[in-house]
Amino acid sequence: MKNELTIVSGLILGLIIAISPDMARTEVKRGDLLIIYSGSTLGELKPCGCDKEEDQGGIERRMGYLKTVRSSTKNTLLVDTGDGFKAPTKQGKLKAEYLMKSMVNMKYDAVTLGDKDMVYGNKFIGEMKNIPWVSSNIELKGSSLPKYIIKNYEDGLKVVIVTAADPHLFYTKDSSDIKVRGPLEVLNKLIDELKEKEKPHLIVLLSHMKKEQGIKLLDVEGVNIVINGHIEDEEDIIDMKPVIKNGKVFVQPGPRGQKMGELKVTFDSDGKISFTHQMVKLDSHVKFDPEMVELYDKYNQKIEALFFASLAAKRKNKNSKVFATETTCAGCHPDEHKVWSESRHGRAYNTLVKVNKSFDPECLICHTVGFDKPGGFVSEIDTPNLKNVQCEVCHGSGIKHAESPQPGFGKKAKDACKMCHVKNHSPKFNFNDYWPKIRH
Ligand code: HEC
Ligand code: HEC
Ligand code: HEC
Ligand code: HEC
Fold it and tell me: Which one, out of 151, 179, 242, 434, has a CA that is 20 to 30 A from the CA of 387?
């Protein structure tokens, strides 16, 4: 039977057809298989919304997309190539927990480990019992990771998932908690055994390594598909164009869960396999799933609670005054102040209030003055005069200048832009285009 794909919102990267010569299979009538893949989510539960173009991804849309696809596709395989987590902070860990909760609800078939997934240790991985972790060459002390996963479909299709992590990416030196074996020797042996014992129709390899190395895995005997993840830095540009070699295909997910990869596998009657590939943007065309909206809201409430809990400690070590604040500057620079207060910098805090994020440290850092720094923004109640992107964010502390004004103050303001106008939050930033909008 043939399944028609519903493309929720398509960014078609390429249609590819490949023929697999060594795939003479037992005759089973099989339908197509749609492999859906993600990876390198880096804890991004929801996009920040700073920029329209970058407003893609998030668990609310991911689930909305999955439900739509599953309602119209019989055989699906949902996999993740790792690096779901990011920062070794309290907030980072909370995000990791909620990402895992969402992925359990999304019913992933296989999730492999990336180097960034080790930031909270083995125990954290071990506790996520409902996640279908799999790793052919990683051994974690204290938890038993399956080396492969088999998925049997109603129409007789049998798919095996194996994995390969690059040992060099993992911190294993002097550590007895994690062992990463050479992937090739492990795979060659394992795939031989699986072919003999399980006779799968398709072998999917999830790898976690640099692209050039991942592509080499297409040479591994028996593997039909390599889905590779790994990201050095969240601003890395990932090449999502598939690579085809000897009737096999190599693909990679993009960063931060912004897009979902779709690889459709079609089997024809002589056992030949062909592939169709596309990346689906999880942008505003994709509906939020109500169950995930609720889950995200719970996360948000936890962040709010942490924020208010942290205030007590911050209030105790009340530190010295570092910023004069915009109202002081206004006294002597009324024209500049007027321009500023009408600019978006002058209402950047309110933006956070509007999206219910005025308690999230990950947002306050760019939408206020000196958040988390000595003398900087604490909360709207404690430091109401340090809201927004004020004069001193760019010109530097002006207390001394306000007392005895001198020409030449704050000349380096131009250099400040790049602290906040970074790729993921302001991809179109260019001083020559942006400065005229706030010139004063
Ligand atoms: C690294 C700095 C940075 C961080 C962190 C940051 N923002 Fe922003 N935000 C910006 C910049 C810069 C812009 C303006 C982008 C542009 O127009 O080029 C912006 C714009 C926005 C806008 C659009 C306002 C409008 O009127 O269009 C929203 C909404 C927003 N941010 C919300 C958030 C939220 C929510 C968070 C936390 C999850 C966050 N921001 C974290 C820098 C940041
Ligand atoms: C987003 C960063 C930013 C903010 C916020 C900002 N400025 Fe500026 N300001 C600049 C830059 C950049 C220049 C140009 C400096 C240069 O020539 O390199 C400048 C120039 C100035 C000048 C010199 C004008 C001239 O004619 O030479 C004054 C005075 C000034 N700003 C005051 C203020 C005051 C007061 C505020 C707050 C009400 C403010 N600025 C907010 C970035 C900023
Ligand atoms: C008591 C009045 C006063 C206050 C308060 C004050 N300034 Fe000034 N500012 C001046 C004077 C006077 C100059 C020098 C103008 C000149 O001679 O060119 C100046 C110059 C500047 C310049 C331009 C330097 C140059 O040589 O072009 C900047 C930028 C600036 N101020 C920013 C600020 C900021 C930001 C604040 C608030 C933190 C602030 N000022 C507060 C009076 C003040
Ligand atoms: C502390 C972080 C920060 C710094 C530093 C900063 N910005 Fe911004 N900028 C923001 C945020 C946040 C917004 C979005 C405010 C909003 O709408 O809520 C923004 C918005 C803007 C906008 C409005 C964009 C639009 O399309 O209307 C311009 C223009 C801009 N910034 C220029 C600059 C320039 C030029 C500099 C350096 C001189 C600079 N910014 C430095 C945080 C910053």
Answer: 434
Check pocket membership of 422 for ligand 1, CB cut-off 6 A.
yes
In angstroms, what CA-CA distances link 206 with 37, 66, 263?
10, 20, 13
Between CA 86 and CA 96 the distance in angstroms is 8
The Cα 440–Cα 74 span in angstroms is 60
Integer Cα distance of 336 and 156 in angstroms:
72
Which segments of the chain have a pLDDT < 50?
A: 1-28
- Predicted local distance difference test score (pLDDT) of residue 21: 41
Q: Give yes or no for a contact between 33 and 265, defined as CB atoms under 8 angstroms apart.
A: yes
293-343 pLDDT, tens per residue? Answer: 999 999 999 999 999 999 988 888 767 899 999 999 999 999 999 999 999
> 360 CB less than 6 Å from ligand 1?
yes
Please tell me if the CB atom of residue 333 comes closer than 6 angstroms to any atom of ligand 3. Answer: yes
Contacts of 317 (CB under 8 A, 6+ apart): none
Cα distance between residue 334 and residue 341, in whole Å? 10
Which amino acid residue places its CA nearest to atom 41 of ligand 1? 363
Ligand 4 atom at minimum distance from 433 CA: 29
Q: How far is CA 43 from CA 98, 152, 199, 257, in A?
A: 9, 30, 37, 9
362 in contact with ligand 1, CB cutoff 6 A: yes
Mean of pLDDT over the chain: 91
295 C-alpha vs ligand 2 centroid, how far in Å? 42
Mutate to test the pocket of ligand 3, among 329, 411, 412 (most ligand atoms within 8 A of CB): 329
Query: Which token pair is 377?
Result: 């923004």
